[in-house]
From TrEMBL:
Family statement: Belongs to the EamA transporter family.
Lineage of the organism: Bacteria, Pseudomonadati, Bacteroidota, Saprospiria, Saprospirales
Species of provenance: Membranihabitans marinus
EamA domain: residues covered: 13-142, 155-290
Name this polypeptide is given: DMT family transporter
Transmembrane segments: 12-31, 43-63, 70-89, 101-120, 132-150, 156-173, 185-203, 215-239, 248-266, 272-290
Amino acid sequence: MIQSGGGSPTFKSYLTLFVLTLVWGTSFILIKKGLVSFSGMQVGALRIGIAFLVLLPLAVRALYRIPKKYMWAVLAVGIFSSFVPSFLIPLGQVKTDSSTAGILVSMTPMFTYLWGITLFEQDYSHKRTIGVGVGLIGAVSLMIEPGVTVGINSSALYILASTIMYGVSGNIVHRNLKDVDSTDITAVSFFLIGFPALIYLGATDFVEIMQSDPQAWFSLGAVAILAVVGTALALLLFWKLVQQTDPVFGSTTTYLVPIVAILWGIADGETILPHQFVGFALILLSVFLVQKRRK
């Protein structure tokens, strides 16, 4: 199915942005609950596998609608926006609070811009580049582990790496897939990455955990909600938004996602330290600079 895309944000665009903010802000606490029983790799495989099964009926029809010349781009979107980040974020959250993870993911607009100017012929902006530098300082602040000897939480690097992946995928959709229906992009991308995820899951001790761990069903339920609402349905909305506006506007969900993630984290007993608020403020400033357009 072919559709036109690109343009200024409308009220509907902002409403979609708000809904995505709430959904994705909640995803980090759901990942945390999934990690109660499963490993980070298992949470990632479950997330992809369940979303794949939900989208399978749509994918069967969509496969015939997408021209072959676009298939490489759809596969790339699946890898960079879903497959790799779905494993990286849970791996990072094994030793990183859900609230901190939510803040770090707000780096996405910066990497969207960086990939845009390096690979996708986007115009260079000195102010946006300064914003990227400010954001990196904020990210380092978040990853500092205070104590007798100050160190860096290396697990958080997994989460930071996921934002690099998101930046690539946003540019690919806007540049190469504006004429492809967003539902088809989402369904087919998961069709292409779903089988490997399920094969990996079957090779782990997933069945044994389900049989022996009393909290396994609770964790599975959390990941199922994450997969259906926070992945399959949310991506249907997100790629539609990117097509109708631009990848940088689409990535502005990251303004409010950290706030939702922080509120969930506090409700779950997490402690937000002063240096984390400083890092959060720097990242928000950087997002503002990266998003700001020249008149």
